[in-house]
Specification:
Keywords: Signal. This protein is of the alpha+beta class. It has 2 domains: 59 residues, Beta-lactamase Inhibitory Protein, Chain:B, domain 1, CATH 3.30.1450; 76 residues, Beta-lactamase Inhibitory Protein, Chain:B, domain 1, CATH 3.30.1450.10. The chain is 23% helix and 31% strand.
Length: 155
């Protein structure tokens, strides 16, 4: 019985930690009332829009809410995932990376006028993903995974 109570407590805790999502069919006004002002707004084809809700710089999630041309939600998802990081390819444009992953947690200047962007994401390994851009705004290489400097090695 005690094990069952513990399991219920853990599952309840997981439910609380879930990011609020937008539901397909909701209006933009309903999304804004529930989630607040987006951290970014991107134009999609056919009058559609993507609303970004980034929790950075220390958060590990970015919710993207897609609105159709009619202003209603067509999809919403947490985009900071290894599956999305795998979509980043050499030569990809900076704007396309923003559309895919949202704003980074950190931006750093690099050698030869390159810039590296970093995102924290949900992982047990305490990593973050880094993407370097050439001066022309295109990805150099792809995504790389490194230890998150915010993690304490002693813990």
């Amino acid at each position: 019985m005690l094990a069952l109570v513990g399991l219920v407590a853990v599952l309840a805790g997981c439910a609380v930690l879930q990011e609020p999502m937008a539901t397909p069919g909701q209006t933009e006004a309903e999304v804004l009332a529930r989630l607040g002002t987006p951290t970014g707004r991107y134009t999609l084809p056919a009058g559609a829009q993507r609303l970004e809700y980034a929790t950075g710089p220390y958060g590990r999630t970015t919710l993207m809410v897609d609105l159709g041309g009619d202003g209603r939600v067509t999809a919403s998802q947490q985009v900071l995932t290894e599956a999305n990081f795998a979509k980043v390819r050499h030569g990809m444009r900076r704007d396309d990376v923003l559309l895919l992953l949202g704003r980074p947690a950190d931006k750093a200047g690099e050698y030869m006028n390159r810039q590296t962007w970093s995102w924290r994401y949900p992982t047990y390994e305490c990593q973050w993903v880094r993407i370097t851009f050439e001066p022309d705004g295109r990805v150099r290489g792809g995504a790389s995974f490194l230890p998150d400097p915010r993690c304490d090695a002693d813990e």
